[in-house]
Amino acid sequence: MAPFLEEPSTHPEFSSKPKFDGGLLDLPNRKEHNIQYEPGRTYVEGHDEYEYDDLRPAFPDVHWEPLKEVPYHDRGTKGDPQFRNLLSDATDIFDYNPKIGTEIDGINLAKLTDTQKDDLARLISTRGVVFFRNQTDLDIDAQRELGQYFGHLHKHATTAAPRRGGLDDIHVVYTDEKSKNQRANFSPTFLWHSDVTYEMQPPSYTSLKVLTGPSRGGGGDTLWASQYAVYDLLSPGMQKYLEGLEALHSAQIQADGSIALGRTVRREPVITKHPLIRTHPVTGWKSVFFNPGFVTDIIGIPKAEANAIIHYLNELITTTQEIQVRFQWQKHDVAFWDNRICNHSASYGFAPHRRHALRVATQAERPYFDPTSKSQEEEMNARYGLPKVSKDGSSQSNYND
Ligand SMILES: O=C(O)CCC(=O)C(=O)O
Ligand SMILES: [Fe+2]
C-alpha cells in the first residue's frame, strides 16, 4: 500500500439504480440483444445495504511489539518446475507479456492441494504476478488460510483492517464516492511501491481479492512491474555497481501520514537496510530490490549520487512498459504477486464507484544477495538458445516517428 492510500470509512448513501454497463463489448451480438452503449460510463451500484459491511475499513487503536524474526521456508522450492500439479485443473493459462504476468483459468484457489500450493508459489516466483478470475469460494478465511500455508502473515502497523475484528493481518483497500480526490493526493509515479519493504522480512506471496469494484472498463486497474526485469535493463557495469550497495527503507512516511490523520500507529516505525540487488530463493534469479515508496537513501555513497540512482530506478520502474503488466479487475478476481520482485501501483479515475479489496501478505526471508546467482534474462536466453540482447544505445532507428 502506498504511504497514504487508505481512506477513512464513511457509509455511502448512493441509491441510484444501475443505468447501463460500459463493459459489454464481449457480448456476441449487441444489435440482437438491443444493448445500449455509452462510452466511458459504468453504473454505480446501489450502496444502501452492503454485503461486505463487516469487512469495511477500521483503524484499531491498539499497540503491538516490534516484529521478531520468524522462520521462513519458501514453499516454492518444492514446486514442480513445470507446475504440473497446479495446471492439472487449469482450463487455460496465458502470459500477459514475456517478463511478467500470467492468468490461469479454471482453478479454485480455495480448493488447492499442498502440491498445487507449492507449484503456485513457484509460478508466482517465476512470473511475478498471477491472476485468477472469479474466485467466489475464496472468502476472507480461505484467503488467510492460503496465505498461512506460505508462512507468517504480516500485520500492517497503519493501514485499515476489517471492522469485523480478529483480522489484524488483513489489509483493507477501500474507496467510495465519499473518498477524497485521490488525484489531488498522489502523483502517478508516487503510487508505485512494493508493500512494507521497511520490515526486516518483507512479504513474498501476497494476494489481493476485489470484493466490489467498478464494472469492467470502469477503471481501478492495478499495475505491476518486474524487478527481475529492471535488473536486466541495466548495463553490466551498473549491475555490478548496484550489487555492492544497500538501501534504507523507511516506515516513517507512512507513520507520519497516519498521525496527520489522527490515527494510531500500531507499531513503532522502523528503518531497515536491505541489499539493493537480491537473489530469489526459488528461481535463484537476481532482482533489483527497490521501492519508489519507501527507499529514502542508499548507504555509503554521496547523497547526490544516491539521489541520482533513486531517480533512475524510479524512472525505469514507472516508465518502462515492457516490464509492466496491467490487470483489469472484475468482482471476485484475485491477483497473487511476489512482493520481493515486483512493484505495483493502483490507478484512479473510477470515482464515484465503491472499490473494496482485501490483501493477505506472507512474511518472507531476510533479503540476501548471492553473487553466483543469475539474472532472469541470462537463464531464459541460455535455456531457449537466444542471443544476448545488446544494451548499447547506438541504434539508429527512430521509434518516435
Ligand atoms: O488498490 C490497488 O489496486 C492496490 C492496492 C495496494 O497497493 C495494496 O493492496 O497493496
Ligand atoms: Fe500495495
UniProtKB/TrEMBL annotation:
<feature type="region of interest" description="Disordered">
    <location>
        <begin position="1"/>
        <end position="27"/>
    </location>
</feature>
<keyword id="KW-0223">Dioxygenase</keyword>
<feature type="compositionally biased region" description="Polar residues">
    <location>
        <begin position="392"/>
        <end position="401"/>
    </location>
</feature>
<dbReference type="GO" id="GO:0046872">
    <property type="term" value="F:metal ion binding"/>
</dbReference>
<feature type="region of interest" description="Disordered">
    <location>
        <begin position="366"/>
        <end position="401"/>
    </location>
</feature>
<comment type="similarity">
    <text>Belongs to the TfdA dioxygenase family.</text>
</comment>
<dbReference type="GO" id="GO:0016706">
    <property type="term" value="F:2-oxoglutarate-dependent dioxygenase activity"/>
</dbReference>
<keyword id="KW-0560">Oxidoreductase</keyword>
<dbReference type="InterPro" id="IPR042098">
    <property type="entry name" value="TauD-like_sf"/>
</dbReference>
<feature type="compositionally biased region" description="Basic and acidic residues">
    <location>
        <begin position="8"/>
        <end position="20"/>
    </location>
</feature>
<dbReference type="Pfam" id="PF02668">
    <property type="entry name" value="TauD"/>
</dbReference>
<protein>
    <recommendedName>
        <fullName>TauD/TfdA-like domain-containing protein</fullName>
    </recommendedName>
</protein>
<keyword id="KW-0479">Metal-binding</keyword>
<feature type="domain" description="TauD/TfdA-like">
    <location>
        <begin position="94"/>
        <end position="360"/>
    </location>
</feature>
<dbReference type="GO" id="GO:0005737">
    <property type="term" value="C:cytoplasm"/>
</dbReference>
<dbReference type="InterPro" id="IPR051323">
    <property type="entry name" value="AtsK-like"/>
</dbReference>
<dbReference type="InterPro" id="IPR003819">
    <property type="entry name" value="TauD/TfdA-like"/>
</dbReference>
<keyword id="KW-0408">Iron</keyword>
